[in-house]
Amino acid sequence: MDPSVRPRYAPRDAYKLEMTQTTQHPFAALLAHAPALPTIRDEDWRFSPLRAITAQPWAAPKVAATSLDAPDLGGPRLVFLSGKLDESLSRLKALPAGLTLVRDLPARRLSESDRPFGALNDSLARDGFVLRVARDARIGQPVQIVYAGSDGASFARVSIELEQGAELALHEHFCGTGRHFLGSITEAVIGANASLHIARVIADSSQAVHVGEFCARLGRDARLVLDSIALQAEFARSELRIELDGEGASCELRGLALARANSLFDHQIHVDHAKPHTTSRQLFRNVLDDNSRGVFSGRVIVRPGASGTDATQQNNNLLLSDNARVDTKPMLEIYTDEVKCSHGATSGQLDANAVFFLRSRGLDEATARHLLTFAFANEIIEHIAVPGVQQWLSTRMGERFHGLAE
Amino acid sequence: MAQNESIQALTEQEYKHGWVTHIDADQVPAGLSEDVVRLISGKKNEPEWLLQWRLRAYRHWLTMKEPTWQKPHYPKIDYQSVIYYSAPKPKKELSSLDEVDPELLATFEKLGISLDEQKRLSGVATNVAVDVVFDSVSVKTTFQEELKKAGIIFCSFSEAVHNHPELVKKYLGTVVPFTDNFFATLNSAVFSDGSFCYIPKGVRCPMELSTYFRINSAGTGQFERTLLIADEGSHVSYLEGCTAPSRDENQLHAAVVELVALKGSTIKYSTVQNWYPGDKDGKGGVYNFVTKRGMAEQDAKLSWTQVETGSAITWKYPSCILKGDNSVGEFYSVAMTRDYQQADTGTKMIHIGRNTKSTIISKGISAGHGDQTYRGQVKILKSATGARNFSACDSLLLGDKCGAHTVPYIESNNAGAVIEHEASTSKISDEQIFFLRQRGLSEEDAVNLIVNGFCKDVLSELPMEFAVEAQKLLGLKLEGAVG
Amino acid sequence: MTQPLLEISNLHVAINGTEILHGINLTVNAGEVHAIMGTNGSGKSTLTKVIAGHPDYVVTSGDIKLRGVSILEQEPEDRARAGVFLAFQYPVEVPGVSNMYFLRTALNAHRKHRGQPELSGAEFLALVKEKARLVDIDAGLLNRSVNEGFSGGEKKRNEILQCACWNRHWRSWMKPTAAWTSMP
Ligand SMILES: Nc1ncnc2c1ncn2[C@@H]1O[C@H](COP(=O)(O)OP(=O)(O)O)[C@@H](O)[C@H]1O
Ligand SMILES: [Mg+2]
User: Fold this and answer.
1) What is the overall mean pLDDT for chain B?
2) N or C: which terminus of chain B has fewer CB atoms within 10 Å of its end residue's CB?
3) What is the residue extent of each domain of chain A?
4) Which ligand gives the minimal distance to the CA of C176?
5) Amino acid C173: pLDDT
6) Burial tier of A321 (Cβ tally within 10 Å: 0-12, 13-18, 19+)
7) Residue A1 confidence (pLDDT) above 90
8) Number of domains into which chain C is organized
């Protein structure tokens, strides 16, 4: 076959075939067949080399009890251990009125069919859930989904449906020990006037590898507030794809990556203004130390006819070490004229004047730097609207920055 | 709404340079092969080393694929149907202006470019030395004698190959190697003429240097090559202008510009590009696929200013390699697309030296079905401690069928670098228009005023004479255009 | 009796399909000064914008006559040239366009309309200097972009300066404030 006409990502059947022919973990077998995976020649993966994934001889996960390094928000809870629901750690009973949880492996509806890790997820996810919030139900307690891994490669899938006027706060937490891979897909369909607050936190082992996709479709006047926080992993890529598909729909997306050692944190944002009078706000920050790398790619599309669109996009990067590196690509793609769109990106060190000011007030240099770094990061954390998550993160960040948290 | 009609009227202004000069041309047959490369080189009496350089480029080109990552779409180009060399047939050897074909003189008079030095001298305008390239060859370079006194070499590329081979050999391909990209490689194989300029050490060029490009013949591509070398501590301001007749077919223009800014020198390079944009339905027009790049040594400064109003497709990224410590790169751009024009333009600033600085100011105006992308790269290498970049990219939309896109790449490998990028996209403001009309301005004048204000930061970078011309050009392009 | 300068009769105005003015009648004779008062949202701003020809408002019935001639079909610039001057409550900024250049372009548009020749650079400069002194505006503001970065008070002075420059016959003010006391 002419290589140029070969499909970029092998179809699902191809994966099945590979799986039957191998005694290895199927993921490892798939990785061996490079066409399935993107390379840095793919525009979307230009700054995120997949060495961290492809260099591994991934084993099948052993489902072992893992201590969960996660806050307990006290409400309904789903715990996936290496891609399998663990009923003993989960809280699925006595759910608030209006919330239903169904154990199921829902078909992908929003994630594009040709996404490479989506296709892998189709083949390899073994467990999943559908969360549904009934019309006009406001779920008072936050719902928590914990993904914990210990070794090997695992996949999970969650689907969220908010009916008209429903409200939900959700915390997705990624943690674990040792070297493991997790491919997760979360999809949310947010009905008219419904509102979803979601905090996604990656606080995993320093050898963990993540590729996570979050896709949402918003109806008329619906609202999404999303915070994506990466504290620890070796490689963590979060793809956030938001479709503003109803007039008056709005989203607020914030992200923070605190990277150190050799880790790479990647945020890929895709906001599609498909209908008139939609609003999007993006604010993403990277704090990069040691040999770490930060990647931000934010794409805002304003479709023909989506007049009255109001979109802003900000990406700020703080480089704490000479060996840190940032690659950022904020993009605006605009096809109609009644719009207000802007974006900005900055990269630099801590403001020398601010450091000097604090020192002149008696702080030593290290403390001054920690304080300013904490403040830079905290401008994201302080907005997190899922109760309990902000407190937990604040403590974690405080530990990272030498006991500076209150 | 009246406003829309007005925008429409503005955007439908006709192209003013669409006529053809009827003149005998010496052309090579259409198509590309080693023989054609040899034929071009032979026609120009080139030395063997240059022929070999062209042939290596040609052979490399055969292994390359036409790029597809850009936003503009265009039908496949048949490289075998392009005429790679076309020159007006000289009546005889030229020794003075009197002997230039009067048809040609008339052509350039009509374009507002006088080849008559006396005329220029007696005019009120400041002197501008002009090299004029008609299809594939340079027909006349003015003020050569005067420049010579300052030790400045300003001549056609072909002349330089014969008279200053050591300079051409030393610098050709050092900034844009013949392997660089599909179109630059094609240019390296078949380039026909262009301008050459060398400013000696410590010399401040006493006048603006300029090249005027005109595509005339049908079916020809234009592949000129410009090489500009500013020796240590020298200073030069250079400008180029371009027009072409209206033709239903698309014409390919794949030029290469190389700037070499040696230690402590300054090169200011300005372009007013007004190639034929095609008709209002998007038929015809020039494909302007150009590679422009400069290399700045220590303390040198490179400044690109461009006003891009023509061409069916503009695809170019005048770039700066800031190699030396403290070197400076600037990019000021106004791009305007209307009807079915597409532009994918921007710059690359590659910071290598310490304390290197770059500034990017880009203004895009889209009207009609025009589509525009700012694509830029700011790359800070690990060595570039103390590097600074500031970028501002604004787009103005006139009408709801046009597009404006902003794709900046920012890559920093150095914690000590400070990078700032900002961009905005908006429609021309109804309130501004109403305000200006309330003060008695017609709607067209109001739009014109707003657009010129929007572009001011870029237009003010142009040499005085060109700024006025560019402002007029934008006005013409806008005639009838605000929403 | 002489013809009224401005005559508004039974004026109904709507925006986005909602009627805002429900039959206004007003006659202003030459030399008279009128103040229109009303509670917030009663339609004062709307009335002035309609007189000036703001495109957002639709006159559903009634008429506005300037010196006996209906101006409803006229473009905003034609009304302006005929002498309608609307002082903006929030004067608009025009980035990149110097105040001086703007004043001259607009003044010449008015002069052309009246069949007068354009002013030379020197004549214009003299005129602006005189008027600027009259309205007590900082000369530095003349070279800045129109209203950009001006304080609220400076913007209002700038409005008066424009008005003074093209010698209107008639004017309607929005929101008279202390700034207007410097009117000649
Ligand atoms: N663009 C608009 N769209 C809809 N309603 C408007 C608009 N502008 C003004 N209005 C309404 O018209 C009424 C009159 O407003 P305005 O003329 O500003 O009053 P005033 O100046 O007397 O305070 C108000 O009820 C206001 O809400
Ligand atoms: Mg009011």
Assistant:
1) 83
2) N
3) 12-246, 351-406
4) 2
5) 40
6) middle
7) no
8) 2
